[in-house]
């Protein structure tokens, strides 16, 4: 055992035997002397040279078992510690305390609260308040006759009781009487008299006030009765006084107005509620972690208002993923005692263990969705996002058309036709976009779009299906043609990424304008005995090829099994909207494998009830969204605007000519051969350009020498200086030789034959 004589001795029994029962500094004359260590050390330090300075942090001690030679005051058991031994931790924690640095973003509440940051959220919050106020007004308005009756009964009672109370107040007996009685009981006349004097003093000025008040009230009453006051003044006076009297006259436990019971309409989100709900999810990782450390669930931000609801950002215990909780949304809602569509857990930003839990003031199904922003005015540029849906908290979600393909799936009544039509309506508002629409159910949901469609089909009869299949085959050819055009424009430096650009899409005669093809109930085509298989294969190819070429395919289906929807298609579609589906298989067929497992479950939506709701992937992170609702009448108005835009732009499809007009394609080498000046072995570019433009103005109109040079480059035709005599003078310009052109054509033909 070691004993530190410099530490206070709590328990003398623990002392080493040699100094038990003795006071320090006292010599007994027997056995060892008790040494005053402080004094002895001071003496030693005085005699010995000073030791080197030891930094504060280092322990200053005499090692046990190594007594200083010649030091009489330390035995082998003695360890003198003159400070706390602070050594480095054996296994320093990973998360060392970072030096304090003010962090600009962390944990500071935002200057503008979340609900006031966008117009949409501000409007949603205001709408919620207005709705709440409206509810209160409606509630009380309905009961107002009852309130009037109660007021009529209680007001006279209130008049009498108020008079009584005023009289009691004027006597100043209240409180004083009990004290006087107490003094009388104690036989204390002096106190009694003092109290009574005080009462008289109080009572005197109170009677005066009451008298003047009564005179004033009486005069007021006389004026009220005798003078010819405007009706509204009388009414206002009565409306002010009568409820006050009724309030005074009603029994304390019988309020005049009924209580507005809010029930479970809204439950304020608190950290405790969130913790409890998370524990109720039955995720072992959460429960084990919380049993060891109650703070294993933490909130990096305070729970705050966010649109028409509250948002809790939660850091789950180590190793638990937000997806685990999202997959148990039902349990979460159950633990909060809220309807399912009021509780919206989503993966948070930062790490997979961060959960963003939004709880609405009311179920999403009961919230009014704002109108589609493009309903009344506005144009669309298909290269830019367009408003497509809203989040549960009514934020607007924008969808993309260009370089995208869409798959919308859901059971009947889920709202997929409306969602698909919304995307087509948006495309219609870009006058450059050519629309080809098939609806293979035959009820005419897209009929309203027909005037702006280059091709339109409606029905599930063999003829319509055959036309639709032929359109897909044409689309594939169109993709081939477009890829050649892209090559051409890429060579001219006009398609930098070998993709359609907005400039090319707008360039008349480029043949690269946006082409939007929508096929609803596509399962009718894919399951068709004659056309199904080929159509599936072609459709897959078009989806793969078309994206960069300005071809956008939008498909809708209600049976997403592998026969009705080839997996190659689902795999290659990059925007998927899974509306209400019956089971996990359908969910994952539309959204992709494991999406159900990861918590993205469109099975929670009920057809009709939750029409328009679905899980949207490919536009931001996957989440529940509700497409904007545009019914057929509203769609008609949008189409009218689309028609006006197209008439202005000259892109209105000709009525009754729903043919697939092939956009001019061209073969530069063949065209050059055709326009070549027969007598010449070499020709200037500028001459060739003007002849080409004369032959195909829609393709070559405006071409300059450099453009022809660039276009010829991929074909390996050499462009050089060609000399001529003009008016006897030699002139040199850029041009090509007939031999080079013929060689390039021969080479191409040879490659074509061998390839
Ligand atoms: N975004 C939406 N918001 C509210 N209601 C909607 C929305 N979309 C659709 N609905 C309603 O749901 C009903 C069904 O919509 P829709 O016809 O698009 O469903 P569907 O899935 O195509 O069903 P079906 O296969 O039977 O046509 C519509 O009549 C409409 O009233």
UniProtKB/TrEMBL annotation:
Gene Ontology molecular functions: ATP binding; DNA binding
Q: Where is the composition biased (Basic and acidic residues)?
A: 12-21
Q: Name one GO biological process term.
A: cell division
What residue stretches are annotated with the FtsK domain? Answer: 394-588
Q: Where is this region: Disordered?
A: 1-112
| Superkingdom to which the source organism belongs | Bacteria
- Quick one: which residues bind ATP? 410-417
Query: Which keywords accompany this UniProt record?
Result: ATP-binding, Cell cycle, Cell division, Membrane, Nucleotide-binding, Transmembrane, Transmembrane helix
Output the Gene3D superfamilies linked to this UniProt entry.
Answer: P-loop containing nucleotide triphosphate hydrolases (3.40.50.300)
Return the SUPFAM superfamilies for the record.
P-loop containing nucleoside triphosphate hydrolases
For this protein, the parts annotated as crossing the membrane are: 207-226
Query: Keyword Transmembrane, does the record have it?
Result: yes
- The name of this protein is Cell division protein FtsK
Organism of origin is: Planotetraspora phitsanulokensis
User: Source organism lineage?
Assistant: Bacteria, Bacillati, Actinomycetota, Actinomycetes, Streptosporangiales
């Amino acid at each position: 055992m070691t004993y530190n004589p410099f530490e206070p001795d709590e328990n003398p029994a623990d002392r080493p035997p040699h100094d038990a029962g003795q006071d320090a500094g006292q010599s007994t004359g027997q056995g060892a002397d008790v040494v005053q260590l402080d004094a002895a050390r001071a003496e030693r330090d005085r005699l010995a040279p000073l030791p080197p300075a030891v930094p504060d942090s280092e322990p200053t001690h005499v090692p046990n078992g190594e007594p200083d030679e010649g030091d009489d005051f330390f035995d082998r058991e003695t360890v003198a510690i003159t400070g706390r031994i602070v050594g480095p931790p054996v296994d320093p924690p990973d998360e060392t305390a970072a030096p304090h640095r003010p962090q600009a973003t962390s944990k500071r509440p935002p200057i503008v609260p979340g609900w006031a940051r966008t117009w949409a959220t501000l409007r949603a919050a205001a709408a919620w308040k207005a709705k709440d106020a409206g509810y209160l007004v409606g509630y009380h308005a309905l009961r107002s006759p009852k309130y009037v009756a109660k007021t009529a009964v209680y007001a006279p009672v209130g008049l009498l009781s108020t008079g009584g109370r005023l009289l009691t107040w004027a006597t100043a007996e209240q409180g004083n009487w009990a004290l006087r009685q107490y003094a009388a009981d104690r036989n204390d006349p002096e106190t009694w008299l003092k109290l009574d004097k005080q009462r008289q003093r109080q009572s005197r000025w109170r009677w005066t006030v009451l008298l003047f008040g009564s005179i004033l009230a009486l005069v007021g009453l006389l004026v009220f009765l005798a003078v010819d006051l405007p009706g509204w003044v009388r009414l206002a006076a009565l409306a002010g006084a009568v409820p006050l009297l009724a309030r005074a006259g009603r029994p304390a436990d019988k309020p005049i107005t009924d209580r507005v019971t809010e029930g479970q309409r809204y439950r304020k989100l608190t950290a405790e509620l969130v913790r409890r709900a998370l524990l109720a999810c039955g995720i072992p990782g959460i429960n084990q972690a919380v049993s060891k450390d109650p703070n294993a669930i933490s909130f990096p931000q305070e729970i705050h208002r966010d649109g028409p609801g509250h948002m809790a950002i939660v850091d789950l215990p180590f190793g638990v993923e937000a997806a685990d909780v999202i997959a148990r949304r039902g349990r979460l809602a159950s633990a909060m005692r809220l309807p399912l569509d009021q509780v919206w857990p989503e993966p948070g930003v930062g790490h997979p263990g961060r959960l963003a839990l939004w709880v609405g003031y009311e179920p999403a199904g009961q919230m009014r969705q704002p109108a589609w922003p493009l309903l009344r005015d506005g144009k669309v540029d298909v290269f830019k996002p367009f408003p497509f849906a809203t989040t549960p908290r009514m934020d607007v979600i924008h969808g993309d058309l260009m370089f995208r393909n869409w798959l919308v799936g859901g059971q009947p009544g889920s709202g997929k036709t409306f969602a698909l039509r919304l995307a087509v309506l948006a495309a219609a508002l870009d006058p450059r976009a050519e629309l080809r629409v098939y609806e293979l159910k035959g009820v005419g949901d897209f009929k309203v779009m027909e005037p702006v469609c280059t091709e339109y089909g409606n029905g599930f009869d063999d003829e319509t299906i055959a036309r639709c299949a032929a359109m897909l085959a044409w689309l594939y050819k169109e993709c081939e043609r477009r890829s050649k055009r892209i090559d051409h424009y890429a060579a001219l430096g006009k398609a930098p990424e070998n993709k359609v650009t907005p400039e090319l899409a707008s360039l008349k005669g480029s043949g690269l304008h946006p082409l939007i093809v929508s096929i609803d109930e596509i399962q009718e085509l894919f399951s068709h005995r004659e056309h199904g298989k080929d159509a599936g294969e072609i459709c897959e190819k078009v989806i793969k090829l078309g994206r960069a070429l300005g071809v956008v395919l939008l498909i809708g289906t209600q049976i997403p099994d592998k026969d009705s929807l080839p997996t190659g298609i689902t795999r290659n579609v990059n925007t998927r909207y899974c509306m209400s589906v019956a089971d996990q298989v359908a969910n994952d067929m539309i959204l992709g494998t494991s999406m159900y497992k990861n918590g993205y479950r469109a099975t929670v939506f009920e057809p009709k009830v939750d029409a328009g709701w679905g899980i949207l992937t490919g536009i931001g992170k996957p989440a529940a969204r509700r497409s904007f609702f545009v019914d057929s009448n509203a769609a008609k108005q949008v189409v009218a605007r689309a028609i006006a835009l197209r008439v202005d732009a000259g892109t209105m499809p000709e009525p009754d000519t729903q043919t697939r007009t092939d956009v001019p394609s061209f073969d530069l080498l063949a065209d050059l051969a055709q326009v070549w000046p027969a007598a010449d072995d070499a020709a200037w570019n500028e001459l060739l350009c003007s002849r080409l433009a004369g032959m195909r103005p829609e393709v070559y109109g405006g071409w300059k020498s450099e453009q022809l040079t660039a276009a010829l480059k991929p074909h390996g035709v050499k462009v050089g200086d060609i000399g001529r005599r003009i008016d006897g003078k030699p002139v040199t310009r850029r041009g090509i030789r007939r031999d080079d052109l013929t060689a390039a054509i021969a080479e191409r033909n040879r490659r074509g034959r061998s390839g």
